[in-house]
Amino acid sequence: MKNRTLTCALSIALLGSVGASLFIPAPTAIVMAADGSGTTASISDILKNQQSDGGWKKYYSETSGEWAKSTIDNKATYTEIRRLASEYSSSKNTTYSAAAIKGINFLLNMQYANGGFPQVYKSSDYHTHITYNDDAMVNVLILLDEIANKKGDFSFVDSNLASKAKQAVDKGVDCLLKTQYVSSGKLTAWGQQHDENTLKPTSARIYEVPSLSAGESTTIVKFLKTRPATSQITASIKAAEDWFKKVKITGYRYERNSTDSYIVADSSAAPIWARFYQLDTNKPIFTGRDGVVKYALKDIDQERRAGYAWYGNWPSKIGIN
After folding, report:
1. Phi and psi torsions of 239, nearest 5°
2. Which of 74, 133, 139, 313 is catalytic?
3. Are 221 and 237 spatial neighbours (Cβ–Cβ below 8 Å)?
4. How many independent structural domains does the chain possess?
5. Alpha helices (H) in the chain, listed in sequence order
């Protein structure tokens, strides 16, 4: 016990200099969708809960406010479309294909002229921002790319809709390239959300301030690697990978429990990355429900330390070590 206490004390002392910390993962989409959404609902409930604009709500039980509107948050809408297409493939019941097509057209209508997708359709506040958070926009682009190529369960779509989906994917890729943050003249990475007008990283919830996000940036790079190579895409990928290498944190591993999170010095540990990096300084940052930026996880409230994914190994999944 004495050695463990000494190790923890050393770890806390080191936090201020390296800004590294553990995380307790936020609830998964399936858990968060327990009151009904496309991840868990029956196919009949999916049909019943499709909104007049063609999309779906985050939670089917919502009746007012922003979350009663159609959204791509928490896997909403693109999950329902996939399930409807799958159901049509096995049953050939055109009720399912018609609902899927209505959902696809919703996504096409939801897309901004600059290629970005908001979190919530016809919304307000941070819900209007181009949303990379939880990989929402990239997952929509992956779906639209399958539709554009009439791949798998989407072989039923007509050429006109496939062509529109391709155009949407091309616009989306252009948006990804234009939103990659430039610091001191160099391309770096992406934020969780970007302003739909300025295209700069911006804020969402009070503890999500303008910053660069290692997790969402990893997914964007992975998607860009599936695109036909161009000089711009190649440069974008290389710049992001260089940034991942620059900001990785070595010599520490995570320890966690159900109520808190912290870091332990470990020279043999694999690299880790912060959830958020401060723009231009590349310092890991942490923010509690007071909205004040801190540089060590120990300095924010315990509820946020335990309840948000502040660190992870995301870039290692694309070969960054």
Report:
1. -65, -45
2. 74
3. yes
4. 2
5. 2-18, 29-32, 43-48, 78-91, 94-110, 136-148, 159-179, 214-224, 231-247, 302-307
Considering the domain architecture, whether residues 98 and 208 belong to the same structural domain is answered as no
pLDDT tens digits, one per residue of 148-157: 999 999 999 9
More confident residue, 261 or 59: 59
- Per the listing, tokens 């502040």 go with 310
Q: Do 258 and 308 fall within a single domain?
A: yes
Ramachandran angles phi, psi of 164, nearest 5°: -65, -40
* Separation of alpha carbons 171 and 107, rounded Å: 13
Give the Cα separation of 76 and 106 in Å (integer).
12
205 is catalytic: yes
- Helix (H) / strand (E) containing 96: helix 94-110
State the CATH number of the domain containing residue 34: 1.50.10.20
H/E run at residue 252: strand 252-256
Identify the domain containing residue 41 by its residue range: 28-173
Per-residue pLDDT, 250: 96
**Residue 160 known to be catalytic:** no
Q: So what's the pLDDT on residue 301?
A: 92
- Report residue 265 as tokens: 């010095």
The structure tokens listed for 110 are 């939801």
Residue type, 140: V
Q: pLDDT value at position 257?
A: 74
Inter-axis angle of helices 94-110 and 136-148, nearest 10: 120
Record the tokens describing residue 164, joined without a space. 């529109």
Which one of 173, 205, 230 terminates a domain? Answer: 173
Q: Which of 105, 114, 205, 304 is an active site residue?
A: 205
Cα separation of 282 and 262, whole Å? 21
Q: CA–CA separation, 62 vs 55, rounded Å? A: 14
Q: Which of 143, 173, 203 is the last residue of a domain?
A: 173
